[in-house]
């Protein structure tokens, strides 16, 4: 049942004082661990999200072991925060030369064809030096029920194509958005089965170097988003609008404040989640691509304007030191969104915490208090216990853990919250002085008696923990 928000808030207060909705949060740029095995940071880069029968499916590139093709992965979630690993949709050695190891297989995008009842995936297919510049197509009867059937690749309409995307219009027609480096960004119509391009309905002539396009339709307005070309490094992404895919398209404008480099991200996908436009970008880390994170931010759309404005203006905003995100964390409600709630932070090195079995305070110049707690896990199973964590409600809530991990691979920890165990992955941070953030959704009890214990997962070493931010409610 769907109540207006004010009424549901009243009901929650009157009838269910201990149950608060909407405290689970999207934390852009954090390590996102799946709630099932293998409990890793999500590897679905450069992809997109589809809603099928009440579950969201995230499909993207696996970059666990570098840039070359490993697999196209699928994850599912009921709420875009709690993600489960589902399966690989394409893998190395699937019997096609395009999918051999060492190849480039990037930017998978899937649309559903009502007439053929097939899920149709288009991807960027290339040689390791990006010289082939082709698009590939694969199909399946199910969104993520298993391996897709790979049909092969071509240069669409005979033109180069690299960072590409798909757009399915409200009338059921679908389009390939393709980066033709010689001539410009193209919108190509597809055949009714979505398997082949028919013709270019628009070629953006302004600049030849826009890529990674994504289209969102709002009412009768099409918004196209794209990035400039700067390799794995981010740039200030741009957008344009039209009321017809064949144009005319308005002059390109910046989607985020100049200099933020789109909050250090590149467009992968822009989708509507029950009325909230959500920008889904990739924050690529070229030195170790598995460290790349998902910068999902609420996009404010008004008329023909789309912007990733800082709303509200964040206290740490300054033009010389722009923030990493326009929201540190945010809540997707039914039909709206809100910034993350007030938080209490708990320093790992606070004297009230209990260190056991070898865990100890270590220096960390970038950490709050310049200290973190290291030697968690490992053979003595070092532990960090933070007691007296407070919450005004008994609720599921998303906490943010600031940490360092100087390894080149993920570290893991088991976090027990009042005895319930959560496995958390911590992607590398490059060194032990520059903290990153990991998010995990846990169940807290109302009151001030919640206890967090960080310890080993599978006997391995955990990260160094700097501090933990816990929503007040
Ligand atoms: C959006 O609405 C659909 C259909 O009512 C629902 O299944 C889905 O859970 C909603 N999404 C979110 C994030 O609330
Ligand atoms: C996460 O979502 C799955 C469904 O995908 C559900 O079974 C599970 O209970 C959810 N877990 C939490 C903690 O919400
Ligand atoms: C966590 O680290 C990030 C990145 O260094 C920083 O922006 C943020 O303020 C830190 N948060 C907390 C709660 O310490």
Automatic annotation (TrEMBL):
<dbReference type="InterPro" id="IPR055240">
    <property type="entry name" value="CBM13-like"/>
</dbReference>
<dbReference type="InterPro" id="IPR006710">
    <property type="entry name" value="Glyco_hydro_43"/>
</dbReference>
<keyword id="KW-0378">Hydrolase</keyword>
<dbReference type="InterPro" id="IPR005084">
    <property type="entry name" value="CBM6"/>
</dbReference>
<dbReference type="InterPro" id="IPR023296">
    <property type="entry name" value="Glyco_hydro_beta-prop_sf"/>
</dbReference>
<dbReference type="GO" id="GO:0030246">
    <property type="term" value="F:carbohydrate binding"/>
</dbReference>
<feature type="signal peptide">
    <location>
        <begin position="1"/>
        <end position="22"/>
    </location>
</feature>
<dbReference type="GO" id="GO:0005975">
    <property type="term" value="P:carbohydrate metabolic process"/>
</dbReference>
<comment type="similarity">
    <text>Belongs to the glycosyl hydrolase 43 family.</text>
</comment>
<dbReference type="Pfam" id="PF04616">
    <property type="entry name" value="Glyco_hydro_43"/>
</dbReference>
<protein>
    <submittedName>
        <fullName>Arabinanase/levansucrase/invertase</fullName>
    </submittedName>
</protein>
<keyword id="KW-0732">Signal</keyword>
<dbReference type="Pfam" id="PF22704">
    <property type="entry name" value="CBM13-like"/>
</dbReference>
<keyword id="KW-0326">Glycosidase</keyword>
<dbReference type="GO" id="GO:0004553">
    <property type="term" value="F:hydrolase activity, hydrolyzing O-glycosyl compounds"/>
</dbReference>
<feature type="domain" description="CBM6">
    <location>
        <begin position="344"/>
        <end position="471"/>
    </location>
</feature>
<dbReference type="InterPro" id="IPR008979">
    <property type="entry name" value="Galactose-bd-like_sf"/>
</dbReference>
């Amino acid at each position: 049942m769907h109540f207006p928000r004010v009424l549901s808030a009243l009901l929650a207060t009157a009838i269910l004082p201990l149950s608060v909705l909407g405290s689970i949060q999207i934390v852009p740029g954090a390590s996102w661990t799946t709630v099932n095995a293998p409990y890793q940071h999500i590897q679905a880069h450069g992809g997109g999200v589809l809603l099928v029968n009440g579950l969201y499916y995230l499909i993207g590139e696996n970059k666990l072991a570098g840039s070359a093709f490993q697999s196209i992965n699928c994850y599912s979630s009921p709420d875009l925060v709690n993600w489960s690993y589902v399966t690989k949709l394409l893998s190395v050695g699937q019997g096609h030369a395009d999918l051999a190891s060492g190849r480039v297989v990037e930017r998978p995008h899937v649309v559903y064809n009502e007439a053929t009842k097939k899920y149709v995936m288009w991807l960027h297919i290339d040689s390791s030096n990006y010289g082939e510049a082709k698009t590939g197509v694969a199909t399946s009867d199910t969104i993520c029920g298993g391996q897709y059937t790979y049909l092969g690749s071509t240069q669409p309409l005979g033109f180069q194509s690299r960072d590409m995307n798909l757009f399915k219009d409200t009338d059921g027609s679908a389009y390939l958005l393709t980066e033709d480096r010689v001539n410009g960004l193209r919108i190509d119509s597809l055949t009714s089965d979505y398997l082949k391009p028919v013709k270019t309905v628009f070629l953006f002539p302004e600049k030849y170097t826009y890529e990674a396009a994504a289209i969102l339709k709002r009412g009768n307005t099409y918004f196209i988003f794209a990035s400039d070309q700067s390799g794995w490094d981010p740039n200030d992404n741009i957008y344009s609008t039209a009321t017809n895919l064949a144009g005319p398209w308005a002059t390109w404008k910046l989607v985020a404040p100049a200099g933020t480099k789109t909050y250090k991200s590149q467009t992968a996908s822009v989708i509507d989640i029950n009325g909230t436009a959500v920008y889904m970008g990739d924050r690529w880390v070229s030195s170790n691509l598995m460290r790349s994170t998902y910068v999902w931010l609420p996009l404010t759309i008004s008329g023909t304007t789309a912007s990733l404005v800082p709303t509200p203006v964040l206290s740490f905003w300054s033009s010389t030191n722009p923030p990493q995100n326009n929201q540190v964390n945010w809540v997707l409600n039914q039909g709206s969104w809100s910034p993350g709630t007030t938080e209490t932070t708990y320093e790992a090195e606070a004297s009230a915490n209990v260190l056991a079995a070898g865990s100890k305070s270590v220096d960390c110049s970038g950490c709050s208090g310049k200290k973190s707690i290291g030697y968690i896990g490992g053979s003595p199973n070092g532990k960090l216990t933070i007691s007296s964590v407070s919450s005004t409600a008994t609720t599921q809530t998303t906490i943010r853990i600031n940490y360092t991990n100087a390894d080149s691979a993920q570290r893991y920890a088991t976090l027990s919250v009042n005895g319930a165990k959560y496995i958390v992955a911590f992607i590398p941070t490059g060194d032990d002085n520059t903290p990153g953030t990991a998010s995990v959704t846990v169940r807290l009890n109302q009151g001030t008696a919640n206890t967090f214990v960080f310890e080993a997962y599978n006997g391995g070493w955990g990260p160094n923990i700097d501090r933990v931010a816990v929503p007040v409610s």
